[in-house]
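Demo today. Your pick:
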Amino acid sequence: MKTLIVEDNGALREHAERLLRERVPQALPVGSVTDGLRAVERTRQERPELLILDIQLPGANGIEVARAVWQERPETRIVFWSQFKDEIYVRRLAQTVPPETVYGYVLKSSPDEKLVQAVRAVLCDEQCWLDREIRGIQARALQSASALTEAEYEALIDIALGLTDRGVARRRYLSRRGAQNRLHSLYTKLAVEREEEPGSMFSPRNRAVFEGLRRGLLNAEVLATEHAALERWLEENPE
């Protein structure tokens, strides 16, 4: 097997396989699985050169699958094929990709030709291929003045989960002043007014969460995962 398609939607899985057979014979033979955990297992067993990988999957999401695969075989090439363009996925992908690894990211809303181009670029030409929209999001997430540091992103997660200044300080092992400074830095990056500014009509915490949702830094999957992590931390660190 040269290519493994990881997609839980049967119609899309069959469509991608048909495209490869008709347009990219270099990608054959092709296999497929429907969930993330099976994808990791199948890749370990059969060592495909290329994965066409959805982001949201049962068992483990696409970023988790990529991380597990690249830890064992960083030369494996991956084309992420997803309907999601949330900034958090682009951010986490950038933190996951090993140096000099070739990968692609195609939106499912794009024409079929884009998926064909991405597969040819990644598999045949050994070049990265990113959808234009993804390139723009990547620039905002990693290079612009509004790009969040990891500390600022942690602060956004914490207030989205409802933590107070004291809660942020306790969870992140900061002084209360340190937690407040981190929040103020977050508000600046998200262009959110702080409460102490005269005439402000917004709660900066709520506005920051709104901006995080609007930019795709937060979504239901991320918040569910982070909530579970917070619950584990509270169990391990009782007051």
